[in-house]
Amino acid sequence: MSDALNYLIKARPEAMTSYFTFLKKAGQHLDPKTRDLISVITKVDAQTDPGFRQYMTRALRNGASPNEIIDALLMAFPTLGLAKIVWATNILIDMDIPEFRPENLFAEPTWHEVTAGSELKDNDVSYFDCDGRSLFVYKSADAIKVYDSRCPHQVTNIPHLALEGTHLTCPKHHWAFDVSTGKCVEVGNRPLNQFEHKLENGKLLAYW
Ligand code: FES
Question: Ligand 1 center to residue 156 CA distance, Å?
């Protein structure tokens, strides 16, 4: 929430509570994905950069595909016009989310070779670039976890340098994660995204 909204909630709690109740009730017959797509369009129309990033990532989390988000933007052309659609597209390009890259828009999920299993050490976190993504891989004596380097908050690509032992801190808004479990341990409330994986012929493969 913006500083301005936080201020208004303190300054006019009753009016603002009514406002948020209105927003909630107004969309009560819509599924979460549809609500999010409508919110994405309103944020683009108002050209609020943080709001667009927030609702776009929320729409992805609630099951919207990149193609559906692009369709929603294009369908709103009569009200947005090309300039606002280009504004939103530039933010998407800046975020560089792998799923939005043109070559990935229609790609089917498949297995990707990450590394040789022998490269992984027990109780250690390794970082890999693999087929256009970055991954953090944690290995214990009896399990392997493969995490997307993209933050579950707003998809920031968390760099290798943000890792200290098994403690990983996103530089954008400082959500922190325990890589041995994937859990968010500071600031935020969602875990790291994990990829399905398997060991095959001595290689670690991940599925996306
Ligand atoms: S993008 Fe907000 S904490 Fe990572």
Answer: 6
User: What number does the ligand 1 atom closest to the CA of 175 have?
Assistant: 3
State pLDDT tens for residues 84-101. Answer: 999 999 999 999 999 999
Domain count, the chain: 2
Listed residue (135, 111, 140) closest to 123, CA to CA: 140
Length of the chain in terms of residues written: 208
Amino acid at 134: S
Backbone φ, ψ for residue 200 (5° rounding): -140, 125
Domain that holds residue 159: 111-207
Query: What is the residue with the minimal CA distance to atom 1 of ligand 1?
Result: 154
Q: Is 39 close to ligand 1, i.e. is its CB under 6 Å away?
A: no
Domain end call among 104, 121, 150: 104
Alpha-carbon distance 162 to 173, whole Å?
A: 13
In whole angstroms, give the CA distance from residue 12 to residue 77: 35
**Interatomic CA distance for residues 199 and 205, integer angstroms:** 6
What is the Å distance from ligand 1's center to 6 Cα?
A: 19
Q: Of 71, 88, 104, which residue sits at a domain end?
A: 104
Q: Is the dihedral of CA 72, 77, 80, 85 positive or negative?
A: positive
Model pTM? 0.84
The pLDDT of residue 21: 93
Residue ranges for the chain with pLDDT beneath 70: 1
